[in-house]
Amino acid sequence: MTAAALRLLAVDDEPPALDELSYLLRADPRVGEVRTAGDAVSALKALEQAPVDGVFLDIRMPGLTGLELAGVLGRFAAPPPVVFVTAHEDAAVDAFSLRAVDYLLKPVRAARLADAVGRVAQAHRGGPAADPGPPDPGTIAVELGGVTRFLQVGDVRYVEAQGDYARLHTSGGSHLVRVPLASLEERWAAVGFVRVHRSYLVAVGAISELRVEPGGGHSVRVGSGPSAVVLPVSRRLSRDLKDRLVHRARREAER
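C-alpha cells predicted for Two-component transcriptional response regulator, LuxR family:
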C-alpha cells in the first residue's frame, strides 16, 4: 500500500452486500485497505482501533442506523468522509444534511462507485470539490407565425417526440421544431436534460416528484401547480433518473 492509498471502512448488515462492496472497493487502484463491519457498534470499535480516510455506509441496519452512525461520526475531532450505500433513495436529503460526500443506490455500479471514491479522496485531501456550474444552455430557433425566434433552452421543461419533430414544452406553451429527440438528448445532456422515456426528454430541474406507480413502474411530475404534467418513466431508464435526482438533492443540501 502506498502512502497515498485510501484506508476505507465498509459497513453493511447484509454479508453478501458487504462482500460485494468491499470487493469493488479493493479493485480501485486508489484504495489500499478496506476494513468491514456488520453493524454500527462494530464500525465504531473498528474506528477506535485505527482511523480511516472514508466510510461507505448502509442506512437501514438493526440497532443504530446508518444515518445515526453518521451523526456520531460527525462529532469526531476529524470526521471521516461518509458515502451512503443503500437500496432506498428516500433518505438522500437527510444523508446530505449530515454532510455525506455521496449517496449510492444498490446495486452499485462501478462508474458511480469510482466517482464516490474520488469524492472521498478529494475530501481527505482537504475538502469536497465544488460542483461546477452548468454551462450556458443557449437558445434554439423556433417558428412563430412565420417568424423565426429564439427560445431560451433554460425555459424548456420537457420535450416530446413527434416523429422527426420534437415539441418543446415551456410553462407558457409549446413549440414544434424539426429536430429528432435523440439529437436534443445528445446536445442538451450537459445542461441537465435526461431521457425518461422513448418519447420524453425532461429537464431534471423541472422535476418536482418521482412517483412509484401501483404496478411497480415510475412516473415523474414536471412543474408545479395547475400547469404540472405527469410523464411515464421507462423501466430501463429509471435507475439513471434516480441517480440524477439523488445528485440534485445533494447539491441542494450543500447550499
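The helical segments are 15-26, 40-49, 66-73, 92-97, 110-126, 181-188, 235-254.
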